[in-house]
Design brief:
28% of the residues lie in helices and 14% in strands. The protein is an alpha/beta fold. A three-stranded parallel beta sheet has the order 1-2-3, covered by helices on one side. Helix 1 links the parallel strand 2 and strand 3. The termini are far apart.
């Protein structure tokens, strides 16, 4: 996403690696990483001086709704 004009991105809790230059925070000081508290994305953001916004994952919400229909848990 380096060089794009994104203002924020949601990173799922299962993401375990982000390359250091994935986001160009120097050009966009208002850039926000949206993630779950305690996730790798949170550690990455803080370690790279990026803003963090805690959120419920839209993907989790979607998968939970789908799995409720099937009677399963998302972490199965």
């Amino acid at each position: 996403f380096f060089g794009t004009k994104l203002s924020s991105i949601e990173i799922h809790k299962k993401v375990k690696n982000i390359v250091s230059n994935a986001f160009n925070a120097r050009e966009n000081t208002n850039f926000v990483i949206q993630c779950k508290k305690g996730s790798y994305a949170e550690s990455f953001a803080k370690g790279n001086h990026l803003s963090v916004e805690y959120c419920e994952s839209k993907l989790d919400n979607f998968l939970n709704a789908q799995n409720e229909l099937k009677g399963r848990d998302i972490d199965e």
